[in-house]
Amino acid sequence: MTDMSLLIVDDDEPLRLRLARAMEKRGYVVQTAESVAIGIQMARAKPPAYAVVDLKLGDGNGLDVVTAIRQVRQDARVVMLTGYGNIATAVAAVKAGAADYLPKPADADDVDRALRVGNAAHPAPPDEPMSAERVRWEHIQRVFELCDRNVSETARRLKMHRRTLQRILAKRSPQ
Question: Which entry of 45, 98, 134, 159 is 20 to 30 Å from 9 by CA?
Answer without folding.
Answer: 134
